[in-house]
Amino acid sequence: MQISNTILEITSARPDVERPDLTRPDWVNGLERPTDALWLDKNENLDPILAEWNRKLVSELDPRSIGTYPECAPLYRKLGESLDLHPRHLLLTPGSDGAIRAVFEAFISPGDRVIHTVPTFAMYSVYSKMYGAQVTPLEYEPSEQGPSLSVDRFLEKIKSTKPKLVCLANPDSPTGTVFNSAELRKIIEAAGQAKALILVDEAYHPFYEPSVVQWVSQYPHLVVARTFAKAWGLAGLRIGYAVASASVAPLLHKVRSMYEVNTLAVDILSRALDHPDQMLASVKRLNDGKAFFLKEMEQKKLRVLQGHGNFLHVAFGKSAERVFKALDGHVLFRKDFSEPCLKGFSRFSSTTQEIFKPVVSKVLESL
Q1: Looking at domain 38-47+277-366, does it have CATH number 3.40.50.170?
Q2: CATH number for the domain running over 69-275
Q3: What's the half-sphere exposure (Cβ side, CA atoms, 13 Å) at 360?
Q4: What is the pTM of this model?
Q5: Domain with CATH 3.40.640.10 in the chain
Q6: Cβ of 291: how many Cβ atoms within 10 Å?
Q7: Cβ pair 103, 199 in contact under 8 A
Q8: Contact 199/213 with Cβ under 8 angstroms?
Q9: pLDDT digits (tens, 9 = 90+) for 230-260
């Protein structure tokens, strides 16, 4: 089948969309993951017990969900009750990615200054370019404890830059780093003093339990993004949400699509929220599996990072190529990073101890 490559001569896209450094993955030639390999490459929740529970929820779907538009109000109320927040603080979104985009679309104009960490979730850079922002990067530095970024350096950057928006994933990805509650309060308050909005991305909650969701009533310039992809094992539904103050949330709703999320996601999530114990039990299983993997690696004197997401890092050093060969075709994972703060580290998504055991065996045999 031939495609047309006719040059668009009638009109042009926004200059920020046409910029050559704004690129996205190819939508035609993406690689499919082999079904016979263990997928530990995208920080998904593949806990088999939770997966079986979610399959049960799917089997209970109302058949009308496929052919009808979503009715989101009941889910807003249920989600608000689960968070102990009025539903008017919430915006349902296609994953936490949708929450991030809503913030950029509602608040960022060409030339506005945005601060975000480096490395971090790729879409912060993409949306900064897409909406014409000027980025002030805050780079993690390498250290013996792994990627490092001091709160003082963060505060100084906010004060000197006076941005329109500060973006911080906590835990951050791919670094797995966090700022504690006292540090976060300083960062949020510094953003407020600079008259900046601050977006705190909690995609990995509750793998890391501390949260600033309840702080939106104290800090009207705070927005929190979350997803049901990680802990809840619902990545395929593409559903998440933003939490914001009563003054900011209505602005985010102004840029939402006709329907925020799809009917299947609304139906399944409404049922899942009735059983948070299933999610919490899965988080414990994955955290226990992560601890098992890290302990086994440490016993072999390999360098590991004690990160806070649903993933882990290990440096295989001189044994790296042998380990990669042993795992090839069996496990998908991130082999290395180009960023100096993570150079030499491999990243694995967390899974259960039972599933990790054969992976550990292959690693140990190849050292």
Answers
A1: no
A2: 3.40.640.10
A3: 21
A4: 0.95
A5: 69-275
A6: 14
A7: yes
A8: no
A9: 999 999 999 999 999 999 999 999 999 999 9
